Amino acid sequence: MVEHPAHLDRTDPAGHIAAAAAAYRNWGRWGEDDRLGTLNFIDDARRVAAAALVQRGAAFSLSQPFDMNGPQQGWRRRTNPVHTMLDTGTDAVANGQGFPHGIGGADDVIAMPLQCSTQWDGLGHIFDRGTAWNGRPADRVVTSEGDLVTGIEHAVDRIVGRGVLLDMGRHLRPDGELPDGYAITVEDLESCIAAQGPTSRVGRGDLVLVRTGRYTRAKREGWNGYAGGPSAGLSFTTAGWLHRTEIAAIATDTWGFEVRPNEFDDAFQPLHQVVIPNIGLTVGEMWDLDDLAEDCAADGRFEFLLTAAPLRITGAVGSPVTPIALK
């Protein structure tokens, strides 16, 4: 299989997608009723080992803010969160809440697409030619009632394990930020692991975090197309690496996980089309990896306990998340 962007035929996305899907497909690996895909690689023993990585008790939140100043621009009805107060301190002071003996309170509500900020893509999020994860017809999996088979609720107690940061920005650029359109290759990933040292080894059941520096630039310069625009990201040719390493999930500091513009003349998120419905890989996007990266660079340890449970939203094809890395 092709493992370098230079060997891709830019005019044949359908051919490359079909070949990669067939080569790396995990359908049936965990039984015909499977709902979790590669999250099956995380077992109790791996969680115990991951817990032992906590040495200092330092905690790092890896989420972007959920507010009206977010990156979304309305593409396909994706908007930033709308946060509305239902009860406030103003109401309490005005004695308009109707509670006895001076007690008052505040309540609020939020309306937002589930993938408007830091989030997981569930296995029902992407289809390959009408087929969802594990070979199921897409129209029998996700309907107007939600994801009836692989809803994100099935993953709520699964995404706890050994996290590994691959700081591609620092590894490949003096300023720590990859340029837009940079396609991260298998060679890049392997060289980063070698340079960062043994705590960066990647294998079965790991939760891999890839920092490109794209969010770093957005925080400094403004969004400027962060959501849906050009960005560094994983090359389509990393599909084989993502399959053979047997990682449980992967997340990046970018909107789309894979390089944008994509590596074909006419394609939209071709790596998604391989890894989610065929490999069964859970994908995270728009994570803030900067503080964690600073700490990892300072102490030379790039592994940690990572907990990143999605919200228990029945039938959702994705979920907001506040991931926490513990070192």
Structure report:
It holds the Pfam family Cyclase. One of its GO terms (biological process) is L-tryptophan catabolic process to kynurenine. GO terms for molecular function: arylformamidase activity. It comes from Agromyces agglutinans. InterPro entries: KFase/CYL, KFase_sf. By secondary structure, the chain is of the alpha/beta class. It starts with 12 loop residues before the first helix and ends with a strand. The chain has 10 helices and 17 strands. It folds into 2 domains: about 10-75 and about 115-325, Putative cyclase (Glucose Oxidase, domain 1), CATH 3.50.30.50; about 80-110, no CATH class. The relative contact order is 0.23. The longest helix is centred in the N-terminal third of the chain and has 12 residues, at about 15-25. Helix 1 (about 15-25) runs parallel beside helix 9 (about 270-280).
Q: Order of strands across the biggest sheet?
A: 1-17-15-9-11-13-14-4-16
Number of spatially distinct domains: 2
Low-confidence runs: none
> Shape from CA axes?
globular
* Sheet having the most strands: 9 strands, mixed
Protein name: Cyclase family protein
GO molecular function, one term: arylformamidase activity
GO biological process, one term: L-tryptophan catabolic process to kynurenine
Pfam family, one: Cyclase
Any key phrases for this structure?
327 residues; alpha/beta; Glucose Oxidase, domain 1; 2 domains; nine-stranded mixed β-sheet; two-stranded antiparallel sheet; 10 helices; 17 strands; 24% helix
Give a concise summary:
The protein contains ten helices and 17 strands. It is of the alpha/beta class and 327 residues long. It folds into two domains: 10-75 and 113-326, Glucose Oxidase, domain 1 (3-Layer(bba) Sandwich); 82-111, no CATH class.
